[in-house]
């Protein structure tokens, strides 16, 4: 029986890389049905709102969505679309794997890290934001709950155990942010005690950044709060060649959204220049989530071999191929 997924093409290069990704899924014989939905600037122009109710209903119905990059207009009155989707569907776990690929121009060739970020709380959630009437003072709130911290830490250890990972690093700033980061660290220690088969360590966020840059091979699974996770996962993407190679999954109890985490790059939209790797690898995450590990491995291997060959890669990977030629090279390997 075919699985139906919600597909959000997004803005800018979104439709280009979504089209490429669906071709790859079809070629691999995934047998999905696709229901398309609008969000972002495209939706604002068509429907007068960034996330139409129909889009939310489709995600709720199908439980799984594949999403291209979205643009939130800059200015007052517009809330981040991604933050809104995470809150609406309680997508509490953000999973960002990075893996060194032969043929990239990355500084390292030994990176294999999964960053697991709490996705709904903390400073990044946007709670309590206000600016004084005279514009001289701004405030925002960071709220961490025991339930949220335990849920994300447990998720990290369960994923580590499932994937045969050896170590989980809890990243915090409890030395200064003694209430919020302190609670997160306290709960992380409690959860770690329940997984004696996995090595546990804790690390202050600034030290983590330094050590990632110096020697990323010492990290395996990182679990942390929302804002720190946003920063660290982008840093990790830089270790393997950039956001064009880094997928992301937003996972909750009842729904999951898989995405390319990079921007919409409107300056190259529709010009056959975009690298679809991040979204294709997000689709690999989606397949693993759906229990289709064999298809996931086939696609990951085809992407890896295409980049390693180097004769049909996009400009950001040092080649001259366009989106279509790069995708065709992956399809040929499938």
Describe this structure in words.
The structure is a single chain. This protein is an alpha/beta fold and 334 residues long. It folds into 2 domains: 1-95 and 243-334, Isopropylmalate Dehydrogenase (3-Layer(aba) Sandwich), CATH 3.40.718; 107-240, 3-Layer(aba) Sandwich (Isopropylmalate Dehydrogenase), CATH 3.40.718. The chain is 40% helix and 18% strand. Helix 6 links the parallel strand 8 (167-172) and strand 9 (199-204).
What count of structural domains?
2
The level-1 CATH class of the largest domain: Alpha Beta
Number of helices: 11
Residue windows where pLDDT falls under 50 for at least 5 positions: none
- Overall 3D shape: globular
* Mean pLDDT across residues: 95
Helical fraction = 40-55%
CATH topology of the largest domain: Isopropylmalate Dehydrogenase
The CATH fourth-level homologous superfamily of the largest domain: Isopropylmalate Dehydrogenase
Q: How far do the termini sit from each other?
A: 22 Å
- Whole-angstrom Rg: 20 Å
Q: Order of strands across the widest beta sheet?
A: 2-1-3-12-11-4-5-10-8-9
How are the SSEs ordered, and which strands pair?
Blueprint: E1 3-8, H1 14-27, E2 32-36, H2 41-47, H3 53-62, E3 64-67, H4 81-88, E4 93-99, E5 112-118, E6 130-131, E7 138-139, H5 146-162, E8 167-172, H6 180-192, E9 199-204, H7 205-214, E10 221-224, H8 226-240, E11 247-251, E12 256-260, H9 277-289, H10 293-309, H11 323-333
Parallel strand pairs: 1-2, 1-3, 3-12, 5-10, 8-9, 8-10
Antiparallel strand pairs: 4-5, 4-11, 6-7, 11-12
Helix pairs in contact: 1-9, 1-11, 5-6, 7-8, 9-10, 10-11
Organism: Ferrimonas marina
GO biological process, one term: isocitrate metabolic process
GO molecular function: isocitrate dehydrogenase (NAD+) activity; magnesium ion binding; NAD binding
